[in-house]
Amino acid sequence: MQALGRGLSRLIHFTTVLGVLAVTLMMLHITIDVVVRNIFGITLPGTIAAVSNFYMLVVAFLPLAYAEEADKHISVEVVTELMPTRMQGALRGFSYVFSALVFAAITRQSFLEAMKKQAVGTFVIQEGWKIPIWPSYYILPVGTGLMTAVVLYKLYLSITGGPSGLRNAMPDDVVTNAHPTARKETDA
């Protein structure tokens, strides 16, 4: 199963790089549009459509799985830290199951919606240009589908206790000891 974890990590790395490229391209696209508009008085056709229908979706949804792989989603552990280790593990498992169900539902529904948009050839018209946007509808199911896969894989690991294979995964004790707020009090 470690091979599956390494494969997921590669896919997560690839989608994260796509997110970084989307941010970079969006900045360049907007900058060029502003410069051309202020110097020559013309606008680049499709800037608003590209930013709102492509760049922003890639930036928002493709790196979701990266945050899960690296355990960087927001979590509040005020009460759970006080619970026994077994209870914490059970709650973690429940959160994986719940997350997998929610993200699987989002993936399914958004994929069905993307297929509908492709079938009708959804587009926007900006400054007289017809810009097809139906491909952008597939970004959400790709991001949430990868998130579902990571959460299911983490659920499997929490049940079996096997080695991860995920690039950013660390054993819980390493993460806890390395956390800056997890300093041990000493008598000095």
Automatic annotation (TrEMBL):
Residues 26-159 form the Tripartite ATP-independent periplasmic transporters DctQ component domain. It is a multi-pass membrane protein. The chain crosses the membrane at residues 12-32, 44-68, 89-107, 137-157. Its main location: membrane. Belongs to the TRAP transporter small permease family. The complex comprises the extracytoplasmic solute receptor protein and the two transmembrane proteins. This is TRAP transporter small permease protein. The lineage of its organism: Bacteria, Pseudomonadati, Pseudomonadota, Alphaproteobacteria, Geminicoccales.
